[in-house]
Design brief:
The protein folds into 2 domains: 75 residues, Glutaredoxin (3-Layer(aba) Sandwich), CATH 3.40.30.10; 127 residues, Glutathione S-transferase Yfyf (Class Pi), Chain A, domain 2 (Up-down Bundle), CATH 1.20.1050. It is 56% helix and 9% strand. The protein has a 4-stranded mixed beta sheet with strand order 2-1-3-4, covered by helices on one side. Helix 5 packs across helix 9. It binds glutathione.
Length: 221
Amino acid sequence: MTYQIYWIAGSPYSWRALLGLLIKGLDYESKLLQASKGEHQTAEFLQINPRGQVPVLRDNDKIIYESIAILAYLDRKHPQPPLFGSSAEETGMIWQRIFEIENHVHDPVSAIVRPVYFDQTKEKMVEITEVLETVYNEFASIETVLGENNFYIGSKISAVDLALFPLVMSLQRALSLENGKALELNFLPFEERYPNIASWIQRIEAIPGYEKTYPPNWSDT
Ligand SMILES: N[C@@H](CCC(=O)N[C@@H](CS)C(=O)NCC(=O)O)C(=O)O
C-alpha cells in the first residue's frame, strides 16, 4: 500500500508533510479532510489522531502525526535526498533551526495570519502589534541567511526549508487578502522587501510537482 496522508487545505503543517513526500518522490493517497464539516473531529479520525489534527501519515498499520515527525519518519525510510543532513554538524544545525522556527517564528506569524483568515484583525490589533517587531526581526534574519545560501542550510533543501516555507507563504497569503492589506504591515512584496526570501520561494515553487502540494483553496481567490 502506498502512503496515505490526511490533510486540510491551507494547513501549513500539512503542507510540510506534502512537500516531504514530494521531495522524496513518494506516491501517496490523498485524504483531504473538510475542516468546515468537522471531518477532523469524527470518531473515525480521532481514532487515527486523538488530537484531531492534521497532518497524519499512514504507512500500512503505522500512524505518524506531528508534521516534523512525519518528515523524520520519511527521511529514515527513504534516506535520499537527506532532509536531516549528512553529517553531525548539518543534523545538529537542522534541528536547531527547526526548534527555532517552532519556538520563535511560528506563534508570532500565526498571531498575524489567523486574525486575517478569521476576519478578526480589528479585535486582535493589540496582539498583532505586540508580535510585529519579533516577526520583522525573524524575517530580517531569514533574509540574511538566505542571502548566503540557496536553501536554509547550505545548497540543498532540508527539513528546515519544509518547516519554514508554509509559514512564510501563509504570511504572504494573509497579507495579500483585503483585510491583510489593510494592516499595512510592510512585508510585501517580498521581491522588494525580502528579495532573498522571494528567490528561495521561487526555487521551491520550481520543484517538479510543487503544484500538487499547493493549498487548493488558495487558488480560488
Ligand atoms: N504541531 C502539529 C500541529 C498540527 C495542527 O495544529 N494542525 C492544524 C491544522 S494547521 C489542525 O489540525 N487543526 C485542527 C484542530 O486543532 O482542531 C504539527 O506540526 O503537525
